[in-house]
């Protein structure tokens, strides 16, 4: 994810908790590594999606935990929040010779609207799997819940309170205007 200063924020999938989030300057040189307090010993729980706000705060959403973290432009944790009504962790399945694997994603994707509210697409534990979009203020207050007409796997903020979603098993992108 890029911010307005041209910095690049990268989420890494690794069995090392200290490699989860890295920020690079616009010239490509390393600026910082962020160690999330929510990182788990099981690396399969550390899959994240990231985005940035208009004022360059980094938003980190864990797919397999009900956890969203917001970091200021200096890389300091500002707030951790979760989606009300969803479990904190998924059910786990035993894997021979490896770490237990999560049984579905709690959260699917994250975007930021024009007012800097978080748009969080619920996953396999939502009432409407991959159709519930939770609108949450940066202070952590649930503002609204919006039901998409079809299951989505990705969402992105567009203009005029609209979102772009990938649906039909990755074969179509649709735009929806959100009313909340």
Largest sheet: 4 strands, antiparallel
**What is the helix tally?**
0
- Proportion in helices: under 10%
- Count the strands? 16
Major β-sheet strand ordering: 4-5-6-7
Structure overview:
The protein has 180 residues and is mostly beta strands. Helices cover 0% and strands 42% of the residues. It contains no helices and 16 strands. It has a four-stranded antiparallel beta sheet, with no helix packed on it. The protein has a four-stranded antiparallel beta sheet with strand order 10-11-12-13, with no helix packed on it. The radius of gyration is 16 Å and the shape is globular.
Features of the shown structure:
single chain; mainly beta; 4-stranded antiparallel beta sheet; 16 strands; globular
Give a summary of the structure in a few sentences.
By secondary structure, the protein is an all-beta fold. Helices cover 0% and strands 42% of the residues.
């Amino acid at each position: 994810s890029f911010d307005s200063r041209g910095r690049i924020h990268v989420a890494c999938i690794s069995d090392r908790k200290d490699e989860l989030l890295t920020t690079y300057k616009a010239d490509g040189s390393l600026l910082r590594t962020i160690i999330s307090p929510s990182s788990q010993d099981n690396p399969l729980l550390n899959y994240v999606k990231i985005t940035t706000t208009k004022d360059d705060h980094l938003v980190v959403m864990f797919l397999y935990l009900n956890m969203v973290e917001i970091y200021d432009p200096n890389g300091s944790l500002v707030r951790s929040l979760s989606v009300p009504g969803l479990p904190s962790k998924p059910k786990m399945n035993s894997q021979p010779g490896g770490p237990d694997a999560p049984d579905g994603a709690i959260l699917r994707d994250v975007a930021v609207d024009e007012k800097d509210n978080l748009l969080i697409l619920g996953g396999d534990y939502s009432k409407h799997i991959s159709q519930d979009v939770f609108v949450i203020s940066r202070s952590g207050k649930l503002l609204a819940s919006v039901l998409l007409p079809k299951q989505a796997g990705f969402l992105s903020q567009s203009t005029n309170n609209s979102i772009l979603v990938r649906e039909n098993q990755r074969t179509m992108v649709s735009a929806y205007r959100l009313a909340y």
